[in-house]
Write a structure and sequence with these properties.
The protein folds into 2 domains: about 180 residues, Beta-lactamase; about 130 residues, Beta-lactamase (3-Layer(aba) Sandwich), CATH 3.40.710.10. The protein is of the alpha+beta class. The strands form 2 sheets. It has a 5-stranded antiparallel beta sheet with strand order 2-1-7-6-5. Helix 5 packs across helix 7. Helix content is about 45%, strand content about 10%. The protein binds glutamine. The site of glutamine has 11 residues, from loops.
Length: about 325
């Protein structure tokens, strides 16, 4: 069997297994949708989608893959890539390190010794990174963020204005973090504007298919599998994957790396995106969350796929690389 046919067989097999997993895990109803942002509680908790996109662009789409939801914390990974691309590693590392915290994503904490946020996937680091988005006004900077998403998605995304307003009116903790960053001289004094931008980036609407495309782009060394556009450089993609593996799943990151072993990022909207370097992106959407803020079904899907296909990055015998 030639290599192309082998690849096709593998994608078919993957599709079949995803279908089976999707069918079985629909019965899993543990967890609750996020409610700390009131508008997020207004979701149908039963929604469930799995999507994969291989680095050659081939998709597998299951369940509610066309349903749009807010990207939430997954946006932190994309903004991190943008900051690295625009300002370089040194500038970025001055604001946020790469140390997993083991603490909740919204912990009010800084790395006091190094005078920076612990990592870019917790809110303190993410807000410090969002502050790096260039532009002279909110509108200009929002345009930079939306243009970034456009390169990943292949189309301009919409923002869920109701979720954004809800984040704005209840985001006191993020505001506290923003002002702590200002007090410490880590960010400049346009704190409110940067917070508005952060609330907006969290409220960007995506489908599970979009999310898999984002994953496939990062897994493909930063090149979009369908448009062929380079979204980030290969070294930036590598840094994004590393931070996703060590810090992407909130305070569950260590267990995730141990049991699933796929660089991934989750959001409280119920999305999780995983990247298999050189192979593709996997995305799951299901709004019921566990105590860490990760999608319950999402975790199970990744656990099962990782086991079935030996997808852990440290598995020696991945079928993808015969
Ligand atoms: N907008 C959310 C917040 O900052 C994002 C959190 C998340 O997905 N963990 O609270």
């Amino acid at each position: 069997m030639d290599e192309v046919r082998a690849q096709e067989r593998l994608v078919e097999w993957f599709g079949d297994v995803c279908q089976d997993v999707h069918g079985r895990l629909a019965a899993l109803t543990d967890g609750e949708p996020a409610s700390y942002i009131p508008e997020l509680a207004n979701v149908d908790p039963d929604r469930f989608a799995i999507a994969t996109v291989a680095v050659n662009g081939q998709p597998t789409l299951l369940g509610d893959h066309e349903h749009r939801f807010t990207i939430q914390s997954i946006s932190k990974l994309l903004l991190y890539g943008l900051a690295l691309e625009t300002h370089g590693r040194d500038q970025v590392l001055r604001r946020a390190g790469v140390a997993p915290t083991g603490d909740p994503f919204n912990a009010i904490e800084l790395d006091d010794a190094l005078h920076r946020a612990p990592n870019p996937m917790v809110n303190s680091g993410a807000i410090a990174i969002t502050d790096m988005v260039d532009g002279d006004s909110f509108e200009e900077r929002a345009d930079v963020v939306l243009a970034l998403f456009e390169r990943y998605l292949g189309h301009r995304p919409d923002v869920d204005d109701a979720v954004c307003a809800s984040e704005y009116s209840t985001g006191h903790r993020n505001r506290a973090i923003g002002y702590l960053l200002l007090d410490q001289g880590i960010i400049g004094d346009r704190v409110e504007e940067t917070l508005d931008l952060y609330f907006m980036q969290c409220s960007i609407l995506i489908t599970t298919a979009d999310l898999a495309m984002i994953g496939a782009t990062i897994a493909n060394n930063g090149v979009h599998p369908v448009t062929g556009e380079r979204v980030v450089g290969p070294k930036v993609a590598r840094d994004m994957l590393t931070v996703a593996l060590t810090c992407g799943m909130y305070d569950y990151a260590g267990e995730w790396a141990y049991t699933v072993g796929i660089p991934a990022k989750s959001g409280v909207g119920g999305g999780i995106v995983g990247m298999i370097p050189g192979v593709g992106g996997i995305a799951v959407f299901s709004p019921r969350l566990d105590e860490h803020g990760n999608s319950v079904r999402g975790i199970r899907v990744f656990e099962e796929l990782s086991q079935e296909f030996d997808l852990h990055v440290f598995d020696a015998d991945q079928p993808w690389n015969p």
